[in-house]
Amino acid sequence: MKHLPIIALDFPSGREALAFLDTFEEETLFVKVGMELFYQEGPAILETLKENNCKIFLDLKLHDIPTTVQKAMNRLAALGVDLVNVHAAGGKNMMQAAVEGLESGTPAGQNRPRIIAVTQLTSTSEDMMKDELLIGCPLQEAVQHYGQMAYESGLDGVVCSVHESKVIHEQISSSFLTVTPGIRLPNDQTDDQKRVATPAFAKAQGVSQIVVGRSITKAANPIEAYHQILKEWE
Ligand code: C5P
Fold first, then answer.
1. Is pLDDT at 186 greater than 90 in this prediction?
2. Which stretches of the chain are assigned E, i.e. beta strand?
3. Is the pLDDT of residue 133 over 60?
4. Nearest residue (CA) to ligand 1, atom 5
5. What number is the average pLDDT over the span 127-143?
6. Which residue puts its alpha carbon closest to atom 11 of ligand 1?
7. Sign of the C-alpha dihedral, residues 210, 215, 217, 220?
8. pTM over 0.85
9. DSSP letter at 188?
10. Distance in Å, CA 22 to ligand 1 centroid
């Protein structure tokens, strides 16, 4: 079985996130807790989600000097989540420090959380890279370069768009995780995402795991939307 789609719990409070999850009857869901929910509720929300049998991607996108990231990852490792991330733009030393921090902080007998690097946000376009970030190379090349750096730094994979997954698997390794946000069903709005794709296209591109937020959380019928995504994905 492929990995479950990851539902982005982009809610302002634990109360709203849990009320949303309560409507699902699945035994296990894979959810993503981002900055909004984590900064509001703190680690307690993770405990509640684990009690509800959820697998957790803690999406805090760390990006700081290596020592700070190492110490922060040491703390995150103790929270018992399944997946964490950093920005590849922090560089190799920072990414290596992140892995060391996770390894030192994982309690004995537990698996260390997997760690992936954000290459370019799926809200970033090539024009924005050029005009605002002063990065002159094509977006695809930047994503591949960041992916290679993440691999050489010992990370388990990357966050990228569906459109870059295939080349990353070809260039690096088919077992290197590609986790892709920017997923939309055919009739959905793209919102602020620039590089979107459907679950079926993600599957065809060999994506490892998809992350879906608004296509589920803002759907008229979230359960139906989740099942449609699951069907396309599996
Ligand atoms: O609502 P939507 O499906 O666009 O949500 C995508 C989720 O994935 C958001 O929580 C966003 O923060 C996250 N994300 C992203 N692009 C990345 C990394 C994470 O959209 N590169």
1. no
2. 6-8, 29-33, 54-62, 83-87, 114-118, 157-159, 177-180, 209-212
3. yes
4. 213
5. 94
6. 181
7. negative
8. yes
9. S
10. 22
Using only the alpha carbons of the chain, give its radius of gyration: 17
DSSP helix, strand, coil percent of the chain (3-state; round to 5): 45, 15, 40
Q: Does the CB atom of residue 229 touch ligand 1 within 6 A?
A: no
Q: What is the DSSP letter of 26?
A: -
6 close to ligand 1 (CB < 6 Angstrom): no
- C-alpha 117/C-alpha 187 separation (Å) is 30
Measuring CA to CA, which residue among 161, 217, 174, 198 is closest to residue 32? 217
Q: Which of 143, 199, 191 is nearest to 171 (CA)?
A: 143
Report the alpha-carbon distance of residue 159 to residue 180 in Å, rounded. Answer: 6
Cα distance between residue 232 and residue 230, in whole Å? 6
Pocket test for ligand 1, best of 209, 211, 229 (most atoms within 8 A of CB): 211
Cα 104 to the chain's mean position, in Å?
22
Q: Look up residue 64 and give its DSSP letter.
A: S
Instruction: List the beta bridge partners of residue 87.
Output: 118
Read off the pLDDT of residues 71-112 as tens digits, 9 standing for 90 and up: 999 999 999 999 999 999 999 999 999 999 999 999 999 999
d(CA 135, CA 115): 25
Residue with the two structure tokens 């920005």: 87
* Total length of the chain: 234
The set of catalytic residues is 61
Q: Tell me, what DSSP letter sits at residue 7? A: E
User: How far apart, in whole angstroms, are the C-alpha atoms of residue 111 and residue 1?
Assistant: 21
